[in-house]
Structures are given as C-alpha cells and as structure tokens.
Amino acid sequence: MSSGSKSEAVQGATLIAPPFFYALLVLAAPLFTIVTYSFLTDGYLEVVRDFTLDNYRHVFTDPIVRSVMMRSLGVSMMVTLVTVLLAFPVAYYVSLVVRPERKALWLFLITIPFWTSYLIRVFLWKVILGYNGVINSSLTGLGLIDEPLTFILYNVNSIVLTLAHAYAPFAILPIFVALEKIDRSLLEAGRDLGESRLMTFWRVTLPLAMPGVIAAVLIVFIPTIGDYVTPTVIGGGKIPMIANMIQVQMLDLDNRPLGSALAVTAMLIVAVVSGIFLFLNRRFLRVRR
User: Fold this and answer.
1) CA-CA distance, 228 to 234, in Å (whole number)?
2) Which of 51, 82, 192, 208 could connect to 164 by a Cys-Cys bridge, CB 3.0–4.6 Å?
3) Which residues, other chains included, contact 289 with Cβ-Cβ below 8 Å and sequence gap of 6+?
4) Which residues contact 207 (CB under 8 A, 6 or more apart)?
5) Phi/psi of residue 101, each to 5°?
6) Maximum distance among all alpha carbons in the chain?
7) Where along the chain do its domains lie?
8) pTM, 2 dp
C-alpha cells in the first residue's frame, strides 16, 4: 500500500473513530450489561455474581411470562398490520396523485404529530376514549346512547388504535420514499399493454414499493412490542405487555437478572420474527420476478 493510500486510510479511520466509539458506548455497552446481568443470580437487594441459567428457565417455563410475551407479539403484529394498511393508501395518494408542488405541504401535515410529545398524544387518546371523554360525550349529547360506553377504553383494541396513530407517520414516510423512486414510465407501460389499474398496482407498483413496506413494518413492529407507556395509560395496567413486566422486575421487585433475561428474550424474538419476515419478503420478490 502506498503512502498516499495509508494516509487516506488513517484520515478515514480518524474521521469515523469518534462516532464509532460513541455508538459503542451508548449502544453496545448497555446491551452487554443487560446480557451479562441475565446470567447472574438475584440476591437480597443485590446481584450475586454467580453464573446461572435459572433466569432463562423461568422465562421459558413460566406460563404468565409466555402469556404476556404472546400478547405483546399479537398486539405488535396487529398494530403493524393496521398501521401499514392505513399508511399505504396515504403514501400512494401523496406520491402518485398529489401534484408535485403540493407534496411538500402534505409531508408537512403528515409530520405534524412529531411536534407533540408521544406521552401527550397517549394521554389525549385517553381523554378521547374515556368514560366522560369526547366520544362518549358526543354520543350521549346526540342521544345515540343513554350511558357512556365502557368497552372503548382499557382493552387491546384501544391500545392498538393508540399505537397505530402514534406510529402512522413512521410507516407513511418510508412507503412514500419507495413509491417516489418508481419509474412512472413502468406504470404507463403496464396500462399501455392493456393491464387494469388494479393489476398494474399488483404486478408493478406493489413489488417495487416492497422495500418501503418492509421498512415501515420493521419500524412499527420493533418498537411497539416493547412499548411501555400505552399499555399502562390506555390499558389501565390491566393488559400488561413485556415491557411492563420488565419494569416490574427491574424496579418494583429489584430482580435485575430476571428482568434482563426477559429483555434479552424479547430482543431475540423480535430479531427472529424480523428475520422470518425479511426471508419471506425476499421469496415474494423472487416469485414476482
């Protein structure tokens, strides 16, 4: 390697070193700590540094943990499905229907929820869905119901609705970007060959937009399975998810090894489910071609 190449390599390493070590510090170090704690033993008000697999045995054998984990997966999948199904038409409309000079305005409107704290948005949904909230007050005022409805809050449906609203912009934007990259001449060619708009969408638009759909699915699925605030506020603490169980173990019961094992198990499940989805999507694209 010439001296010039070595100099460029040193400059490149110097340039990336600060962000690399920063990422290592704020990401890898906490993850390594959690993994290490998951193999230690819980003692009275302290963590005993004795290696054990009992925490993972408890995670995989306790029926309560399995039930909460399955509920978390189910809620996250429902949120992802609802969010992506609602986000795709919006992204499609903005990308392929809205005039170019108006797209910036639409994107501005879509990102407005980011201006408000996530916690505030969750509490607003509680106000909307509450016993004396906006929906019940409106229905009672119109004479459509005699008593406020009690089933629209503190259940899985209200959690899914709140999370779908919170993560909708995260799903719309990557799908919009993928749709923007599609060559419009391909869509015109499909229609020129006699394909209907529906078949053109199925055979051309959807496969080409799949990278954006994949990104939207992962962006929504990964954080919602570990959401803590919404099940606590909208679920009223009656429908705990895995993040709530981790919080109980870590803070209320001071069982950091078991809480760490729960966190590591949840991360592994998310990684496996995401990997399966990516594999199936790759097979889908290969078949479509």
Assistant:
1) 10
2) 82
3) 207
4) 284, 285, 288, 289
5) -70, -15
6) 84
7) 62-288
8) 0.83
